[in-house]
Amino acid sequence: MTSSPSATAMTPLSSEELERLAHKRAGAKLGWYVHATVYVLVNLFLFATAYFGLRSRPWSPYATLGWGLGLALHGVSVFVMGKGSGLRDRLVARERERLKREQGGL
Predict the structure, then answer these.
(1) What sign does the dihedral 62-67-69-70 (CA atoms) show?
(2) Total Cβ atoms within 10 A of residue 78
(3) DSSP string spanning 2-46?
(4) Where are the domains of the chain?
(5) Contact in structure between 71 and 35 (CB atoms under 8 Å)
(6) What is the pLDDT of residue 93?
(7) pLDDT value for 1
(8) What is the pLDDT of residue 71?
(9) Which helix (DSSP H) or strand (DSSP E) does residue 84 occupy?
């Protein structure tokens, strides 16, 4: 019988695995920070061109809202549901216990 990734999620990690996970999570967080910075800079430019420009840009709030939703979902995937996050670990543990109960406590 092979073990699934969820079955080994709560086992202690080796120092190499901890280092790899730390690098992966730091990279994901850095990616979100870059995404947020670009979002702010581009939207400042869009609002400046709409406010100070000769022509009105009525589409700029829609771009901001759409991109903002994408940024929010990116943040959720990095900070809430990312590998090694507390919420994900608790959900995996809860699901593991439920499966054990269904199989008669194996």
Answers:
(1) positive
(2) 19
(3) PPPTTTTTTSPPPHHHHHHHHHHHHHHHHHHHHHHHHHHHHHHHH
(4) 15-102
(5) yes
(6) 77
(7) 41
(8) 96
(9) none
Count CB-CB contacts under 10 A for residue 101. Answer: 10
Task: Please report the pLDDT score of residue 18 as a whole number.
Answer: 76
Give ∠ CA 93-74-10 in degrees, rounded to 5.
20
Q: Which portions of the chain are predicted below pLDDT 50?
A: 1-4, 6-9
pLDDT for 7: 44
Helices and strands per DSSP (H, E), number in the chain: 3, 0
The first and second tokens of residue 68, run together, are 């903002």
Residue 90: its pLDDT value, please? 76
pLDDT number for residue 40: 96
What is the rounded distance in angstroms from the CA atom of residue 49 to the CA atom of residue 41?
12
Closest CA to 25 of 85, 102, 93, 89: 85
